[in-house]
Amino acid sequence: MADEWAEQLTCATQCSRCDQKMGADDQRILSVYDHQAICMQCKNEEEQRPDYEDVSKQMIGQCLIDTEMKWGDPQGYCYHHFYPFKC
Ligand SMILES: [Zn+2]
Predict the structure, then answer these.
(1) In sequence order, what are the residues at sequence separation of 6 or more whose Cβ sits closer than 8 angstroms to the Cβ of residue 42?
(2) d(CA 53, CA 70)
(3) Is 33 helix (H, G, I), strand (E, B) or coil?
(4) Cα–Cα distance between 4 and 54 in angstroms, integer?
(5) SS3 58
(6) Ligand 1 centroid vs 44 CA: distance in angstroms?
(7) pLDDT tens per residue across span 11-62
(8) Alpha carbon of 17 to ligand 1 centroid (Å)
């Protein structure tokens, strides 16, 4: 399950929010709202949401607990919600 999840998210070929195509060299980041890979433009918009700070704090706390319990090694997954990465 961890592999499946990681592959789905890190190698998404398009933004799940606006459907813009994303190449292997395009930076992407995970949404704190639904954990889907989104483009940097959508991330900027997400950060403007009034509840972003609260949601992101809750997300990171829960994410760290979940990944540690279920998969043992988070592999930086939770931090991909805050640091852009490439496929
Ligand atoms: Zn987008």
Answers:
(1) 15, 17, 18, 31
(2) 26
(3) coil
(4) 28
(5) helix
(6) 10
(7) 789 999 999 999 988 999 999 999 999 999 999 999 999 999 999 999 999 9
(8) 5
